[in-house]
Amino acid sequence: MMMRSSPPPALAESRSEQPFWPTLVKFFPYLWAWRGRVVAALLCLVGAKLATVGVPLVFKVIIDDLTPTHTVLLLPLGLLLLYGLLRFAAALFTELREILFARVTQQSIRALALEVFRHLHALSLRFHLERQTGGISRDIERGTHSIGTLINYTLYSILPTLVEIALVLAILVTRYHPVFALITLASLTVYVVFTLTVSNWRILIRRRVNETDSAANAHAIDSLMNYETVKYFNNEDYEARRYDQNLREWAEAATKSQVSLSFLNLGQQAIIVTGVTLIMWQAAKGVTEGVMSVGDLVLVNAFLMQLYMPLNFLGVVYREIRQALTDIERMFALLHTGREIADEPGAAPLEHTPQEIHFDGVHFAYDERNPILRGVEFRIPAGHTVAVVGASGAGKSTLARLLFRFYDVTAGSIRLNGRDIRGFTQSSLRAAIGIVPQDTVLFNDTLFYNIQYGNPAASREAVLAAARAAQLDILTARLPEGHETRVGERGLKLSGGEKQRVAIARALLKNPSLLIFDEATSALDSRTEQAIQAQLEAAAQGRTTLVIAHRLSTIMNADEILVMEEGRIVERGKHGELLARNGAYAQMWALQKTEDRGQRTED
Predict the structure, then answer these.
(1) Hey, what domains does the chain have and what are their CATH numbers?
(2) Model's pTM, two decimal places?
(3) CB within 8 Å of 32: residues ≥ 6 apart
(4) Are 93 and 48 in contact (CB under 8 A)?
(5) By C-alpha distance, which of 340, 510, 353, 350 is closest to 436?
(6) How far apart are CA 585 and CA 81, in angstroms?
(7) pLDDT in tens, 357-394
(8) Rounded CA gap, 313 and 306, in Å?
């Protein structure tokens, strides 16, 4: 038996042990989807092993027949032909098995990876805020690779090895003295026990390698994603030292892992050599005593060589499978992470019609020890605009997150046209809402792609129309590649005002019933703010709109303005009414006017 290829590098372990067979049971539905190919591959496997075991048997007869007393060469020639056919059959069935099973492996990996990816997008915002994207990405990368390792080695290598060992042992028991089978079984048992014991000890070392590798990768990605911040504070050396510390811990753990692997390999070889020596001694003794022929000696030696490789490969396979199981544990943990926000049974799609929003006594807390909203109550009639203002931390942006159902309210309800939003499917709810956020994050792709992202099914004409409505024509006219210009990582090649126009174009292309402006101009200068404001007001025409504002000058024309403090609405009314009351809103207005005059004086 020949090894097809050298095993991949040792994979990292995760936090706890993963049972072997339950994990295979989880894979079974993905494999069974290709049941025809699986069955055909298994039949090819059996055919290959029968041919492989048949080769030494034919070779024994050839040697025994090629004695000085034999003069007829017809029989040996026929056996030689059979010998060649069996070798070719073994290779043929092996390649057919690989051809049949290749698609099974890749499609199984694809199906599971896609399921994990979809599940991650279905998890709550809280889950993603509490975890580093780089670490999750690394877990998925290792997990998907390990799925291929597990499937290939379990169903592609272990089973063929077991079939071959069983056939060889059966021949040794039926044709020769039981001592041959006993030595083989004893060697195999000691080998397996030693491998399991040492490999389980190595799990602790591999776990450390995994943790330090994830930590280093997560830090590197986090640092590079915050490139500008690092530059602002001249902290390149600081970031390099932190990364080097992660790498130092990883290197130490990886070195210990390699040393322990060498110890495992050396012990395995010692066991195999001992078993081979004992069996060959017994065979040589049988030949000298006349109870075995030279062909029998060659046959036993050939079987030992065939068993040597499976035994050695079995150890490698076990290590890789054990490491693969611990690697995919984190990915399965992601897959089995419960959804904090899920559609209720019988949830209905939200119709794309004018909607009235009603926050009905809403209470909410990200952490129950720190309430964010305390009995918030307001309505936005269909087609009207309501603005919410207040100091940082008052709970303004939380209103948008609750409306999107990134979180569910702790008490009270949010209603659309009188129905609790929890009674609608999340997909249809979010399809009905458009948002222009304070910080517009763009994909590292073309300007056209980023606008079309608001509605991937939109035609090119619709995308260009949305761009014109958001007044992106000036930008595209001066760009050499126009709408096909790449915007850079997170849109860094565009100014703040240009990115906001892209966000407006996205929202217009989506054509939502509900619109949210979440401090959409707070990060812009006054001139850019004035240019963007007209487009925001145009986008809000005829839509139910929630404006979360920092600058009060942008919401003067709102149908109603809500003033929030510490999670409560303390004032409400139109701009003029609130100024006349000389309350919290009037104070905020006066303060901003003073700040604006100070900025103009400095300019």
Answers:
(1) 20-335 (1.20.1560.10), 350-377+392-431 (3.40.50.300)
(2) 0.64
(3) 38
(4) yes
(5) 510
(6) 99
(7) 999 999 999 888 889 999 999 999 999 999 999 888 88
(8) 11
